Write the structure tokens for this entry.
Amino acid sequence: MKAKHNWRTWAVPVIAVLFGLVGGAILIALTGKNPFEAYGWLLGGWLRDIRRFSDTFAIATQLILTGLSVTFAFRTGLFNIGAAGQMLMGGLAATAIGLLVPLPSYLLVPLVVLGATLAGALWGTLPGFLKAQFNVHEVVSTIMLNWIAVWLVAWIVPTWLKSNQETQSARLPLAASLKMDWLSELTNQSSLNLGLVLALVATVIIAIILKRTTLGFELKAVGFNRLAAEYAGMEDKRNIVVSMAIAGALAGLAGATQYAGYAVNLQIQVLPSQGFDGIAVALLGNLTPLGVVASSMFFGILYTSRGLMNAALKIPPEISDTIIAIIIYLSATSILIHRLLDKLTPRKEEPHD
């Protein structure tokens, strides 16, 4: 029975992707183009040269971390819709440390990563505390904190971290960057950086916490049934705060990989879209660490290659956004796909002993 359940569970994201591709093919056909040729560019364009191949992994890096952030909170009974704000605060901390702290690169880079992770954790702790102490719904508090983060950055950057342009911070020095000269040369000046290594390490750590540790068991227990966990002697309030702090730390680390790796400066009044894309990544990844990595790569491929599809065939890049939207919708309403599978392949009852 367990194997069949796993088959059905993983069938949901696969079916969501297939429906998204079918919907996109219909739209492409309506433009008068060949859907198969278009998908050759959209799904295969990232393999055409080393730079696009590497940029796909660079784009997936932030999505892995924000997807893990959403996944961890969801698996522990919470909904972290504030990954964007936590990511922004991580980016602010990374930028401030990189610009203001005079240290050699081998000390500065770890400090940038640590500072960003702690800033994200702090920003995640706030809604966790409000939830634990006053039962403030984390969806409301995290949305509000997203915009507080935007306006904090809009105040701090022009005041202490500004460049010659008021809308962005000064350029981060190479000594504080996750970019490596040898990696850039190897990948034809792509955006790939050490953030990918951090994202993969974080994936392994989160998988271990959720599957193999007492902490993970308690966090999931509190999330699934807070009263039962409290009755069993678990610290429900503490675990809620810890869960949101870990989710925030992952998003803060995404901020380091974005603003000290993929980008070179921090722009004001711009909420990073990866924070919201992480929700889609988590849903498509079936709320598992390994699934998050796979879905992040899929989204990275779509984002990298949609410009190629437009340049080669003059197909509007918005079609790839529509494909993503269909996939997200079907992933979010997975109960409909489960019902379809139940009709097509009814479950067999196991014999009783």
